[in-house]
Amino acid sequence: MSTLLNSLGIDRLSVEERIQLIEEIWESLDADAGAEPPVLTDRQKQELERRIAFLDANPGQTVPWEDVEARLLARLNR
Questions:
Q1: 28: burial class by Cβ within 10 Å (0-12, 13-18, 19+)?
Q2: Whole-angstrom Cα distance, residue 34 to residue 57?
Q3: 9-to-3, 23, 49 alpha-carbon distances in Å
Q4: DSSP 39-59
């Protein structure tokens, strides 16, 4: 396990607490919204374009985040 996980005590948090921490860290990135976006490699750009094209062609293939989150939490709480 990562030393950062251990030193910050993240490994002692419950699943729900770790998910909350992830959400808070993600939201904190909005504070840096004025910063330059990361530079993508050509391969990353191609992959994003491929995924966008797939979703455009198959709009019924998406799953709402709430459904994904509920399924993950259910699996973790078994």
A1: exposed
A2: 33
A3: 10, 17, 39
A4: PPPHHHHHHHHHHHHHHHH-G
CA pair distance 46, 40, nearest whole angstrom: 10
The string of pLDDT tens digits covering residues 6-23 is 888 888 999 999 999 999
pTM of the model: 0.44
User: In which residue are the tokens 């459904």 written?
Assistant: 67
Extract the tokens encoding 27.
């939201």
Give tens-digit pLDDT for 26-36.
888 876 667 77
